[in-house]
Specification:
Blueprint (H helix, E strand, L loop, with lengths): L1 H8 L3 E4 L3 H4 L8 H4 L9 E4 L5 E6 L3 E6 H4 L4 E3 L7 H12 L3 E5 L6 H11 L5 E5 L12 H4 L8 H11 L13 H11 L16
Parallel strand pairs: 6-7
Antiparallel strand pairs: 1-2, 2-5, 3-4
């Protein structure tokens, strides 16, 4: 990948032989292989040398968000030990290549965004506008896990479920929409849409 080769040529990367097991008790990467050469003969990951600085952006839903990437996660993996390009690098390069200028995704990915902005900055790539939508949560405030508690949707009764989603997004469907067609419901929602109404967090929790 050209982006990775560019970072390597600029001396912004290093090879890391640390395994997941070695790092499982670490909140952030401690810089082990940044300070000392990687172990010879061991497969390595490629990491970006992340310097301490505050990365700040304004999210259209969550508001101002700030993170010191170096302090939060340390040196970012760009290519894994199995030689697969890591998500953080792949997503910023793909977004730039495809001309993506707006990103809408779940708020559970909010803390990833400063890391991607850091990469966009060092690579000279454009920064999209971000909007992080609140997610449904488990009783312990973790993201609703489809693998543990999937919620079956009634495909024969789509309208009530659609109206419930509209309400979660800050819209207030009138009672008359309960008897409307799906097309009419969508037309109403599009005409009423205002991203400023979307809450930062959802008060609804799935407990069943």
């Amino acid at each position: 990948m050209a982006a990775l080769r560019s970072l390597q040529a600029r001396g912004l990367t290093f090879e890391c032989s640390c395994s997941r097991l070695q790092l499982e008790d670490e909140i952030r990467y401690p810089g082990t292989c940044r300070l000392h050469p990687s172990v010879p003969g061991v497969a390595t990951a490629t990491r970006l040398r992340v310097e301490p600085r505050s990365t700040l952006f304004s999210d259209r839903i969550q508001g101002t968000y700030r993170q010191d990437v170096a302090g939060a996660v340390g040196d970012i993996i760009l290519k894994r030990r199995d030689q697969v390009v890591a998500y953080q690098l792949a997503v910023v390069v793909d977004d730039a290549a495809l001309g993506v200028n707006h990103v809408v995704r779940g708020a559970d990915l909010l803390d990833n965004t400063p890391r991607q902005i850091y990469l966009q900055t060092v690579l000279g790539l454009p920064q999209p506008v971000y909007a992080h939508v609140p997610v449904l949560t488990e009783p312990d405030d973790t993201k609703l896990a489809k693998s543990r508690r999937s919620v079956r949707l009634d495909t024969d009764s789509a309208l009530p479920q659609l109206l419930a989603v509209f309400s979660l997004l800050g819209l207030k469907p009138p009672d008359c929409l309960a008897a409307a067609s799906l097309g009419a419901a969508w037309d109403w929602a599009i005409s009423e849409w205002d991203i400023k109404r979307v809450p930062k967090r959802l008060n609804v929790r799935v407990t069943g």
